[in-house]
Write a structure and sequence with these properties.
The protein has 458 residues and is mainly alpha-helical. It folds into three domains: 91 residues, Fumarase C, Chain B, domain 1, CATH 1.10.275; 249 residues, Fumarase/aspartase (Central domain) (Fumarase C, Chain A, domain 2, Up-down Bundle), CATH 1.20.200.10; 94 residues, Fumarase/aspartase (C-terminal domain) (Ribonucleotide Reductase Protein R1, domain 1), CATH 1.10.40.30. It has 19 helices and six strands. Bound molecules: arginine. The site of arginine has 10 residues, from helix 6.
């Protein structure tokens, strides 16, 4: 395929250099956005009289025919083409003749590629938001199911205080809601039209940038043409949103792996989301969770790659920026796949309630409540804390729990103790009393569930 830029040179390029330069193998996935953008451009050229309305019509018809043929697979991408932009223009000119050569008036591939990528990522962002909402809904449903199931809550991976499994799950929902918010915010900045910035300096033609932006559903236009073709912040923002989202999925995955281990046995994953071992017959491995955790590293890599590519670039467009696409495509593809399988894995996950409850009953996770009980009897918290620590040490030494120490034993530490202490250290009561907003009581978790459902719209 002849080069669209043959002129200053004869367009002959070294074969290896040509392949190295080509972005078609990966930017062909932008064909729909490229053609849609070109149709809007042709309409603008016609509406402003830069070309005739009849010519614009020929271009638009030709473009829609190419779109149809690519959709149906009637034509294929020419591997010799340099990129999706030159490929479409070349086919158009082959099909409609002279008029095809007018499409690129008042435009450059620099604003064109920025336009295509913004259109593509706008749709991808919407898809990712939908998938996060779906997952947030699934986790919220699980939280509802397990809003009274007591488990040990951890800090430093040491048993800390009793919480409910529903409360713990809702913590992840809150993260996902922030992910949705971040993605929605990024979408606003993606949704700005760069078309009409041309190569970098704007144009001498009487273009109407607002006409094109409106036709393509943009909220506004890039207000500085040099910035409009140089800016890849929107790609970096999306990559960073996805990196944070993957970090959340990865932490969740880590807990899934822990909880499904023989040491914890807090949950049982559906067989459909685990694998066996080729040698150890007893194994049921949480591969899906492990892979999501693993792919998080890969998505961080995508973000780091583009941040590094961009950091030293002078204005305006530089070919380095062609590297944006593979990174962001990979991150979008990866996160969508992760969200899909993760949703299935959580939806079919079962809590092993009695194991959770048994783990909560050991480890003195009601010691804070013991101290709070003494505070209720008039002791300052620090004094109560110290006294309770001594009781825990005593109980541990005598292989007892706070629930089964005798009242005499309690009273040997302080005369303030009475029968009420058993109510105070009862695990169900410990949870039920934490009615503070955001806390672990059933009522507090129900509020969190209602808040989440309002945002998710489920
Ligand atoms: N393939 C290029 C990219 O992805 C398109 C823009 C090319 N512009 C240029 N002046 N060579 O960035």
């Amino acid at each position: 395929m002849a080069k669209i830029w043959a002129g200053r040179t004869d367009g002959a390029v070294d074969l290896a250099a040509d392949g190295f330069n080509s972005s078609l193998p990966f930017d062909k996935r932008l064909y729909r956005q490229d053609i849609t953008g070109s149709m809007a451009h042709a309409a603008m050229l016609g509406a402003t009289g830069i070309i005739t309305e009849a010519e614009a019509e020929v271009l638009i018809d030709g473009l829609s025919g190419i779109l149809e043929d690519l959709d149906s697979g009637k034509i294929d991408f020419d591997p010799a083409a340099e990129d999706i932009h030159s490929f479409v223009e070349q086919i158009l000119t082959e099909r409609v003749g002279e008029a095809g050569k007018k499409l690129h008036t008042a435009r450059s591939r620099n604003d064109q590629v920025a336009l295509d990528l913004r259109l593509y990522l706008r749709e991808e962002t919407d898809r990712i938001i939908e998938a996060v909402k779906l997952l947030a809904g699934t986790v919220t449903d699980k939280a509802e199911e397990y809003k009274s199931l007591i488990m040990p809550g951890y800090t430093h991976l040491q048993r800390a205080q009793p919480v409910t499994f529903g409360h713990h799950l809702m913590a992840y929902v809150m993260m996902l809601l922030r992910d949705i918010d971040r993605l929605s915010d990024t979408r606003r900045r993606i949704n700005v039209s760069p078309i009409g910035c041309c190569a970098l300096a704007g144009t001498t033609y009487p273009t109407d940038r607002f006409y094109e932006a409106e036709k393509l559903g943009f909220e506004g236009i890039a207000l500085n043409s040099i910035d409009g073709v140089s800016d890849r912040d929107f790609v970096l923002e999306l990559l960073s949103d996805i990196a944070v989202l993957m970090m959340h999925l990865s932490r969740f995955s880590e807990e899934i792996c822990l909880w499904s281990s023989f040491e914890f046995r807090f949950i049982e994953l559906s067989d459909a989301f685990t694998t066996g071992s080729s040698i150890m017959p007893q194994k049921k491995n949480p591969d899906i969770a492990e892979l999501v955790r693993g792919k998080t590293g890969r998505v961080y890599g995508d973000l780091m790659a583009l941040l590094t590519t961009m950091k030293g670039l002078p204005l305006a467009y530089n070919k380095d920026m062609q590297e944006d696409k593979e990174a962001v495509f990979d991150a979008c593809d990866t996160v969508k796949k992760c969200l899909e399988v993760f949703n299935g894995m959580i939806g079919t996950m079962k809590a092993l309630g009695s194991n959770m409850r048994a783990a909560a009953a050991g480890g003195f996770i009601n010691a804070t409540d013991l101290a709070d009980y003494l505070v209720g009897k008039g002791l300052p918290f620090r004094t109560a804390y110290k006294l309770s620590g001594g009781i825990v040490a005593y109980a541990q030494k005598n292989t007892k729990t706070l629930e089964n120490l005798s009242l005499e034993e309690y009273r040997s530490f302080s005369p303030l103790f009475d029968e009420g202490v058993y109510d105070a250290v009862d695990l169900d009561n410990c949870v039920a009393r934490r009615t503070s907003t955001g806390g672990t009581s059933v009522g507090s978790v129900e509020q969190q569930i209602a808040y989440a459902r309002e945002i998710i719209g489920a």
